[in-house]
Amino acid sequence: MAARPALRVLCLAGFRQSERGFREKTGALRKALRGRAELVCLSGPHPVLDAAGPDAVPCPPEEQPRGWWFSEEKDVFSALEEPTVCRGLEEALETVAHALSKLGPFDGLLGFSQGAALAALVCSLGQAGDPRFPLPRFIILVSGFCPRGLDLKESILQSPLALPSLHVFGDTDRVIPSQESKKLVGQFPGAITITHPGGHFIPAAAAQRQAYLKFLDQFAE
């Protein structure tokens, strides 16, 4: 019997994560999903210049901490406060659109933290008819939250997002408290949730591994 093709998933990093660092952070998950899903990692387009401090040694581009957008004029992002701006968001959307076009096709999206909020926004725009963002077959959101900002209110979370979703969050996450993730869960009818006792990371222990595989198996060809 021929091996079934692996699902392809575009994975959006969190704020202040480098491309290399995000690949390393998803290493356990990639190992757990080997043969079932290929994870293609993507970091934000904007270097976070204040992330390493004034005395930091310059690092290669793939190790530069990056973000998708900022909630102040400085290189700062807060998920829990109403932002004064959403600086750089359009560049973030174009980065994802380019990856979908040039690196795709993809079966699903996975987002972590700020990347999860962006993945939800991308799907909302796609559902509203934005041709840059064809709806994926599924979405996985880890430590996700509903993005805040006046210029987002007309484009996201105005109607339920009609695609299968898996939501993963930690009971002791102090960066994105679980209640924030639960608000995002509420935007997806029929959402499946996985909770874990840890904090702000992508879990891949045995219990979560089985839940990921069960969710992904319904999309296997």
Could you walk me through the main structural features you see in this protein, from its secondary elements to its overall organization?
By secondary structure, this protein is of the alpha/beta class. It has one domain: 3-Layer(aba) Sandwich (Rossmann fold). The protein has 6 helices and 8 strands; from the N terminus they run E-H-H-E-E-E-H-E-H-E-E-H-E-H. The protein has helices spanning 19-25, 27-32, 89-103, 114-127, 178-185, 206-217; strands spanning 7-12, 37-42, 46-47, 66-67, 108-112, 138-142, 165-170, 192-196. The mean pLDDT is 88.
Task: Supply the key terms.
221 residues; alpha/beta; Rossmann fold; two-stranded antiparallel ribbon; 28% helix
Quick take:
By secondary structure, the chain is an alpha/beta fold. It has helices spanning 19-25, 27-32, 89-103, 114-127, 178-185, 206-217, and strands at residues 7-12, 37-42, 46-47, 66-67, 108-112, 138-142, 165-170, 192-196.
List the helices and strands and how they pair.
Blueprint (H helix, E strand, L loop, with lengths): L6 E6 L6 H7 L1 H6 L4 E6 L3 E2 L18 E2 L21 H15 L4 E5 L1 H14 L10 E5 L22 E6 L7 H8 L6 E5 L9 H12 L4
Parallel strand pairs: 1-2, 1-5, 5-6, 6-7, 7-8
Antiparallel strand pairs: 3-4
Kindly report the average pLDDT value: 88
Which segments are poorly predicted (pLDDT under 50) over 5 or more consecutive residues? Answer: none
Overall shape: globular
Helix content: 25-40%
Annotated CATH architecture: 3-Layer(aba) Sandwich
Portion in beta strands: 15-25%
Number of domains: 1
Termini separation: 13 Å
CATH class reads: Alpha Beta
- What CATH calls the topology is Rossmann fold
Rg over CA atoms, rounded to whole Å, is 17 Å
User: Count the strands?
Assistant: 8
Order of helices and strands: EHHEEEHEHEEHEH
The CATH superfamily title: Alpha/Beta hydrolase fold, catalytic domain
Main beta sheet: strand number and arrangement? 6 strands, parallel
